[in-house]
Amino acid sequence: MDKSRSNSKQKVETKQVDLDTGMPDLPKKELFAITFAFLGINMAFSLQSSQMSRICQTIGANPNNLGFFFIFPPLMGMIVQPIMGKMSDRTWNRFGRRLPYLLFGTPIAALVLIMLPFSGSLGFGYGSMAAMIYAAAAVCLMDLFSNICMQPSRMIVGDMVNNKQKNFAWSWQQVFSNGGGILATILPFIFTMFGMSNTAKRGVVPNTVIWSYLCAAAVLLFTGLWTVFNVKEYDPETYAKYHHIDPEEQNKSVSLWKLIKTAPRAFWEINLVQLFSWFAIMYVWTYTTGTCARNIWHTSDVTSAGYQAAGNWYGILTAVYSIAGIVWGLIYAHAKAGSRKKWYTFGMIVGGLGLVWMTFVTTKTTSIIAMIMFGIGNFSINTIPFTLLTSSLNGKNEGAYLGLFNVGICVPQIVASLCSFFLFPLVGHNQPMMLLLGGISLLIGALAVQAIHEGVTVKEA
Fold first, then answer.
1. What is the pLDDT of residues 13-36, one digit of tens each?
2. Which of 24, 258, 335, 363 has a CA positioned 20 to 30 A from the CA of residue 75?
């Protein structure tokens, strides 16, 4: 990057540059293998986001307390990802640097994924404390091991892909991610079409949802192992050469606290945007099913066929915004490196307007249009920040920084969940109004994008 600035404290001129220009272009086969794991990983996360509210209310959770369940996933991410990033920065063995964690996490993630949909089938009783505790534990374990799978997949892109190919690689990763989201969220609808029961007795999760989770677990296992056995990471010497760092220096252990204090400027600037972005996304996950049920099916009874139909429809809407993200991603993959902030701002604005519109929709057709708009924003939020961040890191402690960066994704989700305990009653227990707040949050975040300074800052000679 060519932008220059003056540091008033040290009185030295600095500029922002790319340090990975010497890295080779990777063949598309390799880029495919690096990003393919996200198909299965996001099947898990998409089922969590699209079905967790439905499952929890089906087994008897009070809608006023849904935020409680949605605190656990980001909390797990906050704890796991920085630690795993720091550990993997120092992991070099015959399986690689990041891949050993994916190899360990994938089978366990597939196993714990299927715990949640059976919450209502184990005889705990509708709305019982045992059912709530089991569901909370299932959510924690599912997110813990899904994070163990997700973070190495992100780190490999930063490790192996040069700045010229970063837009392409992160776009592919999000395309596979959205593809997994589509598969996961339309499965209940497809199973219903083929005659599987989409309702069950009080407190029991319908078979359409249970079988969706079983299919997602199988895909998660297959795609994760595909990446493990088809990607060859750089050895320590090659990595140091491509990233222009001292081979000995990359083995030095630095505390997470010191890394936070010395984080690049872009790290904090992007996290400010993330605060508004993930606040909004948390409310999409939590309140879209209820919004559809209220505005389109005119019901709030979670045991009714109308509410369960709304749950299936939210799955379709998730597929819609995922498809929109895929199309947008294929376009963005060809964007110039210097235009990332413009794409980011545009995506946030369109996504915010989509959520505002979603608040007032009364038909399936208008809900589709609104969620197409949100899909453009969702793609931007899940792709461009990582491109901006990894192009602003110098190759040292990259895994740790990506893990710490995830805290900036998790904290807004926790804040949003906690805020829901007073915001939801404040808006009259009106779930569509919570989506309106999310839309406003995205529009504010779009303004903050302009403050981001991309690139590695170095002193000029």
1. 445 555 566 788 999 999 999 999
2. 258
